[in-house]
Amino acid sequence: MKWIAICTALLASFSAHAQQAGDDYDVIFAPSPQAQRAQQGVMVGLNRYLDQTIVVGAFGTILTKQGEQDWQQAEVPTSVLLTSAHYVDANTIWVSGHDGVLLRSQDAGASWQRMLDGFQLLNIELEWLQEREATLLTRIEDAEDDDEAAEYEFLLDELSFQVQAAEIQQDVGPTKPLFDVLFTDAEHGFAVGAFGMLLETHDGGSSWAIVSERLDNPTAFHLNKLVSNDAGDIFVIAEAGQLFRSDDNGASFELLDSPYQGSFFGGLFDQQGRFWVYGLRGNVFVSEDNGDTFSALSSNTRYNLNGGTLMADGTVVLAGHSGTLVFFDQDTLEAQRFEHSSNVPLSGVLQDAGSEFILVGRGGVMQFLSPQVPAR
């Protein structure tokens, strides 16, 4: 019933905006503007492979650098807000973004191709919903009794609202952001986004399929982050405390017993194989059994924690609102809190060298010198 209410509200919203939708959607297809001070724009995601670092953010901005060289802005075929970056190998990089955009580089970030956009995603979603609708109709016809038929009819009623919303959105245009992308090998990958969107590819991103039905997520909570461990398990980290785990390369997912009902924004595995999740109001939890159980940690903050990294010495560092940085000792799990001088919301952090850190957030690309870590 909750999903019906959500879909009804979405239908009303879509209808109100449909009359205002134009024929063009420039933000998806317009190249990212080149800027002399691109580093000062809003940045959301960052990652590193060997000595190359990548940062992504507003207006389709992608910055890369090798070692201690200066940042270089790439030419990017979209102006949407970019949200995360994932290295498949030294040359292949994937970037997720708003309005259903996925980008790929096969030359270490020198050039970029748009592999998925919101219009393509709308078509994929409508076909997926229509296929599910046809399946439910068949199951109703083949039901063994009235109770079984009634159950399928209820699911069909809920699904009909989603189909109507998808049909209306064809006129409105793309709106769904993708928040993260993860590849298990060069051909097989996943992307996650708003309203429970889970995408999968088996051909290196040339085509994508919606597989959201693999998650026990009937109210379509936002899926915020993808994480994997050395064993190849895949984790989906979501809002409303939802956590999902796959031990079969994403063919199926198990809903974990969550330690918290508020939203999680990120997660990572430390050097000891422990699974960390963090998010709303400074909540941090760690699992020593691959997500079966969790223990709460004190972060010494109530600010949202949005991104994290693992330092070379095993220290876990989390970054969040108001310039907050929290360092967790790998042995005691005790936290030390610091604040970046900008006091702006931070979305990501990476150790650069020694006590130097790269931060991204509302203030762009920033540096932080930790008083806790010995200088190189």
TrEMBL record:
One GO term of the biological process aspect: photosynthesis
Domain Photosynthesis system II assembly factor Ycf48/Hcf136-like, first and last residues per copy: 171-255
GO CC annotations, alphabetized: photosystem II
Record-linked SUPFAM superfamilies: Oligoxyloglucan reducing end-specific cellobiohydrolase
Keywords: Photosynthesis, Photosystem II, Signal
Annotated signal sequence range: 1-18
InterPro entries named among the record's database cross-references: PSII_CF48-like_dom, WD40/YVTN_repeat-like_dom_sf
PANTHER family the UniProt entry points to: PHOTOSYSTEM II STABILITY/ASSEMBLY FACTOR HCF136, CHLOROPLASTIC, PHOTOSYSTEM II STABILITY_ASSEMBLY FACTOR HCF136, CHLOROPLASTIC
Name of the protein in question: Photosystem II stability/assembly factor-like uncharacterized protein
Organism, scientific name: Aliidiomarina maris
